[in-house]
Amino acid sequence: MAAARRHKRVASSQAGFLPLKSDLDGKIADIKRRKRVNKNRKKNWNKYSDINDVDEFLDDVRLQERAAGGLISEKPDDGLFFVDFGEKEKDTRPQEEEDEEETVKKSRNSKPLRIDLILQPASHIQAPKNILAFQQPNAKKQRRIAEKAAKLAARGVVPRRERLLQLRRAAATTRVPVKENPACNNPHTPFYDLWTAGTPETADPYYLEQTKKKRVRRPSKLNEKPSVLPAVEIIAPGASYNPDFVSHQELLGEAHKVEVKRLKEEEKLQRQLAVTGEIATEESTFNEQVEGLIEEEEEETEQMRSEEDTEDTAVGPSATHKKKTEKQRRKEKEERIKELQKKAERQVIDRRQQLFQMQSIRDNLKTQEQVTKMRQVQRKANHEAEKSMPRRLGILKFQTPDLDVQLSDELPGSLRCLKPEGSILKDRFKSFQKRNLIEPRERAKFKRLKVKYREKRAFREIQ
């Protein structure tokens, strides 16, 4: 406490320090005595140390730097005081001389008023820099891009963006002018009624689009059919109620092929699902469990015997790898260099030999071109064939319906004996699937809920 008071007295009693606050001495006298505390411990330093006088002294120094531009004791007298000479005596000189002096005074740079000089900030402390005012988003990235552009410009390389801009400008200059619709503010355009049914040809396209009087452009893909198949396919002549013998036999042959193919698929599925091999017995399971154990024991015994033989043969310093001499290393290096030279010479010879194979290379190129053309033709034919095939539009595949065929003994003799077969609705539904208009579907399976019967207590009591 005494040290702090002494420091304040010394600071305030210095000859070069003039405080701006007049009550500094009064505060020194009003300091109360605090109880004496042991300051050997670090936790008592800040708790029981009074540094208010030091803070006041530093605040006064900062105030002088802000208001007066520095310590008042260091400023000259001319910066603090000025001499007042009172009112000037009236000059008895002629009017002409006074006018000349006024013009000379006006021509000179007039000094600012004393009050303006006092109000000007004389602080030597610079204002804090506003970092946010100078920050830019992605400044580092933009600087790196600018440096890269400067390096490319120094080498004469034009960036891609500028190159595209130059091409666009060149294309705009060479573009053929297109006849545009007249402007809406053109006084020479004829008047037309907005509420009429028809629209004039000179109307603004934007107006036509907003008023829904212009038809929406139809996509070109909507004009293409998803399949080249006709909507109604003509059945084979063998499916008639009174067909000739040949056409009926041909239709029977097609139905027979479909049925044979179906049977083969079923047999294949049964073969895949059938259990192959003998049924497992106790002996077979035991052999499977023991399999590999006997062979492993034999391999271990053979390995032990081979290790013993190697130990008997390789004993002493001869068993270790000998260090190669300098002569052997030099010889191996020369052999590697010779192999590399041979490979390089062989490559040169092969390149020279290719000059004499120009005709064969030309023939190979011709054959490759023919093969590519054939593949293109085949690919085009496959693409055309796919147009008549049903595509997979959903999870399920399209299943061709069964052929409606009657056997020879089932053919009716006349139209009166003809019985209706098939369904027109199913036929149209399959036709939509085949022409890729809808995806293949299955009939929804409705699961019937099981009803539980339970007798209530009231019903039991009645019984």
Automatic annotation (TrEMBL):
GO MF entries: 5S rRNA binding
Key words, A-Z: Nucleus, Ribosome biogenesis
Entry's localization field: Nucleus, Nucleolus; Nucleus, Nucleoplasm
Taxonomy of the source species: Eukaryota, Metazoa, Chordata, Craniata, Vertebrata
GO cellular component: nucleolus; nucleoplasm
GO process terms (BP): ribosomal large subunit assembly; rRNA processing
Superkingdom, natural source: Eukaryota
Disordered as annotated region, ranges: 87-109, 288-341
Annotated Basic and acidic residues bias: 329-341
Protein name: Ribosome biogenesis protein NOP53
Keyword Nucleus among UniProt keywords: yes
Family recorded in the similarity comment: Belongs to the NOP53 family.
Protein's job: May play a role in ribosome biogenesis.
